[in-house]
Amino acid sequence: MSDDRDAVELPDTIELPRLLDFYELQTAEHTGIHEFYERLREGQLSTTRCSDCGDVQFPPRIVCPECHSDDLEYVDLPHEGELFAFSMVRAGAPLGMEDEVPFVTGIVEVGDVRLSARIDGADYDDLAIGDPVELNVVEIDGPADHERVFYRFEPR
């Protein structure tokens, strides 16, 4: 190393950058679907339905992808569903989740929608397509100035 260069010391750990956070900001100031998060915070999974054409979308929308109406209403989804498909995440997890691998993720049928979700409390080998699962709302710790939540499912 040359004597005329400054040395840079790297930290042992790096804080998760806000822009790389897997979970979005959930207030009215930050997202048009803040009502989804408000309902989820109260323990209710919901989505939007178009008042004009009746299409139900997940994730919630601010404009209907079928008829382009912005006349959408929030509708409750069941807390219980059925496992449609699943897989094990063994590597390549999103930033901030690297220490949680392996974990199960899947497609869950709830009411009129299929959604992707993490499946907690089960090993891959213990699950089968068609297994009943139930909603698990989790709090998200991280670089935000408000409380955040997200949905997961667990075997029933």
Automatic annotation (TrEMBL):
Every ChsH2 rubredoxin-like zinc ribbon domain range: 39-73
Return the InterPro entries for the record.
ChsH2_C, ChsH2_Znr, NA-bd_OB-fold, Thioester_dehydratase-like
- Please state every residue range assigned to the domain named ChsH2 C-terminal OB-fold: 74-136
Q: Which Pfam families match?
A: OB_ChsH2_C, zf-ChsH2
Identify the PANTHER family for this entry.
BLR3430 PROTEIN (PTHR34075)
Q: What is this protein called?
A: DUF35 domain-containing protein
